[in-house]
Amino acid sequence: MSEYVIDDRDMPKFRVNRAAMTDPAVLERERERIFDRTWLYIGHETELTKRNDFLTRNVAGRPMIFFRDHEGKIQVWANSCPHRGAMLCREKQGNARFMTCFYHGWAFNNAGKMVSMPSDEAYGPDFDRPGLAAPARVDSYRGFVFVSFDPEVEELVEYLAGAREYIDLVMDQSEVGMRVVPGTHEYSVKANWKLLVENSVDGYHAITTHQRYFEMIVAARGEIPAGALARSSSLDLGNGHAVAVGEPVGDGLLGRPLSEAAKAERAARFARLRERYGDAWVDRMDGTRNLIIFPNLVLIDLVMGVVVRKIDPVTPDYMEVTGWELVPAEDGPELTRHRLDDYLTFWGPGGLATPDDVEALETCQRSFATRAELPWSDISRGMNTASPVSTDELQMRVFWRRWNALVTGEQLPDEPHDPPSAFYLGQRREPAEGVVAAADA
Ligand code: FES
Ligand code: FE
């Protein structure tokens, strides 16, 4: 049995040892066995709208440059000069055909090739001029760009397994393509990174931790539809990916009421999407989903907009978080304003949700100092039910079983549950021949 996970199917109970959140040796192992071996999100292609656009990003603590090169191709480069190591790019973002290292002046184009170096006669004519270094693998799915530091990693589409379908449900909501709104929400939490992974798919905490938010929603919209949270499901998507999904509730369970014009705009688009993809798929699309893509990418689609969240460990008790808002590119100004307002109201630095979550996670981490007295956290909710819902904890156990397999080598069997109801199995009707989905064009 692993020293970190108790998975007792008879009781049933599932426990995680709090040392997994506090021990520096665990983070070392996570870096080697998870972050050096899986696919990690760096950014979305729509963040680089023009040729030569770039963004600098950390991926698992490694500084990278995320580029659209002069031919329009997505590139990812290690942000380190091959000469003696200075950080090649110290800007957060910009547009550049070339980058010149500020230390000794070596220059590179955005396809990674060295183009000049001061006084290069000292190197001789046969000198092998190094270019920029790339991670072992770079690939994308529906515009989500991932890198892997493992040349042997499985193909991205296989790695994503059942999560692909949920990415499709997010990306098919636009007729012209979803786009990331410019601007980044960056924050840090004095807690272990896995606590935020859990929290991002945790329906159980919503009503208690975010009581004020729900009071505000009730005040703005009237009562929350009875039983709304119960019409949900928690699903294992394979490879450590999991989702908590909710069925559609009117024009959304969360967010402030839409204006009549914004409601009409959204309804007209969904009617056209029904024509294109069929009711079964669009009914699913119209619901909600909190999706973990193992290990550290989260997509939260709560009708009022889609949060893309990347979670990076720094030390066992400190993480950095980056969030973006993904919206249909054709949204009019009213819907965009509404979504951004919802983002700020719920997720923002002064919002009614994220600060509460940060407080909850930081108190967990501080209280782990009592781990000699209380070594185990409990994540058993819904183990004995036939069809776990989003207020259960199957989605977290799926993450932890994969974590445990990679970190300790212990393979635990999947949890047996009933297959999801027909609603969650609805498939996309493929566009008629000759019609190319705009999002993929
Ligand atoms: Fe970049 Fe010397 S370290 S040119
Ligand atoms: Fe929360």
Write the layout of secondary structure elements.
Blueprint: E1 5-8, E2 13-17, H1 24-35, E3 40-44, E4 53-59, E5 62-68, E6 74-78, E7 93-95, E8 98-100, E9 107-109, E10 114-116, E11 137-141, E12 144-148, H2 156-160, H3 163-171, E13 178-180, E14 185-189, H4 193-200, H5 206-209, H6 211-221, E15 232-238, E16 241-246, H7 260-277, H8 279-285, E17 288-293, E18 297-301, E19 306-315, E20 318-328, H9 333-346, H10 354-367, E21 376-378, H11 394-408
Antiparallel strand pairs: 1-2, 2-21, 3-12, 4-5, 4-7, 5-6, 8-9, 9-10, 11-12, 13-20, 14-20, 15-16, 16-17, 17-18, 18-19, 19-20
The chain binds FE2/S2 (inorganic) cluster and fe (iii) ion (FE).
Name the shape in a single word: globular
What is the mean pLDDT? Answer: 93
| Low-confidence regions | 437-441
From the alpha-carbon coordinates, what is the Rg to the nearest angstrom? Answer: 23 Å
Q: What helical percentage do the residues reach?
A: 25-40%
- Helix/strand structural class: alpha+beta
CATH arch. level architecture of the largest domain: Alpha-Beta Complex
Superfamily at the CATH H level of the largest domain? Naphthalene 1,2-dioxygenase Alpha Subunit, Chain A, domain 1
By CATH reckoning, the class of the largest domain would read Alpha Beta
Beta-strand content: 25-35%
Number of discrete helical segments: 11
The end-to-end span amounts to 49 Å
Task: List ligands, each type once.
Answer: FE2/S2 (inorganic) cluster, fe (iii) ion
